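Shipment paperwork, digital attachment
Item: protein structure file
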Amino acid sequence: MTDADIETQIFALLARRQPGATICPSEVARALAPAGGAWRDQMHHVRQVARVLAQDGRLRVTRGGVPVDAIAPGGPIRLGLAGAQGSD
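Attachment content:
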């Protein structure tokens, strides 16, 4: 799974949601994992790509509605389109 694969999947999943909606990084990992694959092994990679996209201003990463670093410890995060306001 490449960074480009992850980026494409993030934005594809967000495009299917209502404006302002968010996704869980695990949705991205599950979508890209082979059938029955170990999607959890890809979670760090998904978060790394999300971090870069957030730093580029293309993605919003939140925890409980508060912006956070995508790879910072502390619990689940949500991914949303930058500039879109929604609930987590």
